[in-house]
Specification:
This protein is mainly α. It has helices spanning about 20-35, 40-60, 70-80, 80-90, 120-125, 130-145, 150-160, 165-170, 180-210; strands at about 5-10, 10-15, 65. The N and C termini lie far apart (about 80 Å).
Length: about 210
């Protein structure tokens, strides 16, 4: 019988057999080494660990409490290696589309594109239509029936916001892999940089006019 080892990922204890433990430790070290000197390291690694915990929890049941080497290999195959990302993009090109076919989406509130709580934008992403149409439907329902405000508030409370990179990928139905997490994070940072530069330019123009 193989020896069982414990490992803590994001505060969750997983029991792994000896071979699985060694393979997972090597994989985690590979991830930490790859992102050691990169911007946003903590957030990217945290998103990867969150996804790992989700995948490992799916492997467990009442009848199975120990992660095997086969389980670890399947999870690594799903997530990919950091080196896969380096092979796909040379330099620092963040314009490439996210990798992999679209998968099953999860419903989140899109707080990056919102007027109030991001409910309409999240629903639009989930059913793959322009959020503007969802907003129009809510407004029409509000004027015609008057109940859409209550529905909106309930959805605002019930639907979680997409805060992490992993959650934003799941909201779009994109595979939550290491390469996609890193690329999405870079795109997010690029958008923030563009917005800051735009605000700085507007502030400079306003100051010159005064």
């Amino acid at each position: 019988m193989k020896k069982v080892r414990d490992i803590n990922i994001k505060g969750i204890i997983f029991h792994l057999d000896e071979d699985a433990f060694k393979k997972l430790n090597t994989y985690l070290n590979e991830i930490n080494t790859h992102f050691r000197h990169k911007k946003g390291r903590e957030e990217i690694v945290s998103d990867i660990e969150n996804r790992l915990t989700e995948l490992f929890q799916q492997k467990l049941s009442n009848k199975k409490q120990v992660i095997t080497l086969e389980d670890v290999n399947e999870v690594i195959s799903t997530m990919g290696h950091p080196s896969d990302f380096d092979d796909e993009v040379e330099g620092d090109d963040t314009t490439n589309p996210l990798n992999g076919p679209k998968g099953k989406k999860r419903l989140f509130r899109n707080i990056d594109d919102r007027f109030l709580g991001g409910v309409c934008s999240g629903l639009g992403s989930y059913i793959n239509i322009d959020p503007t149409w969802v907003r129009i439907i809510f407004l029409l329902a509000l004027f015609l029936a008057g109940g859409s405000a209550v529905v909106y508030i309930v959805l605002w409370i019930v639907i979680p916001p997409a805060r992490t990179v992993s959650e934003k990928l799941e909201m779009q139905g994109d595979p939550v892999t290491i390469s996609n997490i890193e690329r999405a994070f870079k795109e997010e940072m690029s958008e923030i940089k563009d917005k800051l530069e735009d605000l700085t330019e507007k502030a400079s123009d306003t100051f010159k006019k005064k």
